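== Protein entry: sequence and backbone fold ==
=== Local backbone shapes as whole numbers ===
==== Amino acids and backbone structure tokens ====
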Amino acid sequence: MRNYLRGFLSLAVALSLSRVAKADQTLVFDGDVPAGGPDHFFVPFEVPAGTVEIEVRHDDLSEANILDWGLDDPNGYRGWGGGTTEPAVVGERASSRAYVRGPIPAGTWRVIAGKAKVVASPAKYHVEIDLRTAPKLAPQEGKVPYAAAPARKTGRRYYAGDFHTHSLESTDARPPLAEMVAFAKGRGLDFIEISDHNTITQLDDFDAVGKASPDFLLVPGIEYTTYAGHANAIGATRWVDHKIGQPGVTIEGAALAIHGQGALFALNHPTLDIGTACIGCAFKQPVDHAQVDAIEISTGGVVLLFKPTLALWDSYLAEGRHVAPIGGSDDHQAGKDAGGFQGGIGSPTTLVLADELSVAAILDGVKKGRTVVKMVGPKDPMVELSAGPKGATPAGVTGDTVAARARTFRATITGGNVPDAAARFVKNGEILDEVPITADPFVLERTFEAPATGEDRVRVEVVIGSTLHTVTGHMWLRRDPAGPDDRPVAADSGCQSAGGSADGWATGLLLTFVTCMLQARRTRRSAG
């Protein structure tokens, strides 16, 4: 009996140790992709003390299925490679792209697998893991933890940038940061946001690239990529868990985590619904609209998406949300070989009115709605929107709410005097009359009567031919019974424009003219 127990215990210990790795060992895992359930599953493995580098090779074993891949250590996130077939290597002083270098703690690690596309059965996976006591990757010099850069330029003005670009730290992208900056500067941009997929490893290169281009701003960010929508964490410097459906991981929690670090939550290409050709690109996550700071109304300058995306944006605005418009190229190639729904960096271009060229000031400008989107590229016309009587100090600019009985809104358009160009006001989502642009600069103005309750919103758009080229952020108008009234008054008659149309003052002028003529006729009859 004693020998039997001893043998049983030996077998149990052997079995329990069979899954515990030794250094300089290769682990192999084959299995079935779990059907149903959450979008992600895990392959755990043990890392012994003394390990200094880990390499993970993975395969979805299918031409039809697509699995995404990432890695956690005992403390959490160590990288996200997405759908790449490249191995993931994590070491103390170096790592493969999209993965975090640093200490290799002993304990339970796990390979993360995301079910991006599972259409063929049986769905299987194969994983090989090398545990090493000596690294193969050379130390990566010049990488420095992120610190916010000082202002690159000073002075209140519109700064030009791109809020959606990818560096080589997105494994479906190619370019290093230095190449991206050179291309962006060549197009006249002042900043770009580096919004890599579910990783923050790009931040380690900001210092070196920033020193080489001291007049250019790199804005940190994450393209928060899920299988039901891509969001933009503008300004984020800490990783946010994207594995929606895992315990405690929700889109609401993600939005709170993004805002909690002072970043903004925006929607990327929210109406790009082309199925598995762009997995999860259309935004279908059930996020509280109050959490959304901005919407990408132009992606890659693709005209086909303008109408549905503007309609989505207007639906948020109709709820009373002051959501800023932004544009992003979704560039993955630093302007080379861009195609499909990706534009070169700067196509489109977003102008942000800010006090200086710093991350904090750019985020503040977007938060306040002080943006203008050149929908196709940086050469599109520029529009500066303001409010108040002609010649007076503006009572407000793009993003502001003004209180009045009636206010004149004025758009100053530069670069728009080209064939077939026209400008128009858009009030509460309704397009008003187009006016041909006949000069440079060109001023378009219109007086709006404030609504009896709530707020009206006004923006300006520029079209060239049938293509939309420029969209401003909004200004809002609410009623103040004691506030200013910009409606014109007829000279020496005591007559004031009736302003019967809340859309402008043309009808008011007509009524004023008719009223004054009737009064003049009565005066002549009395005198006779």
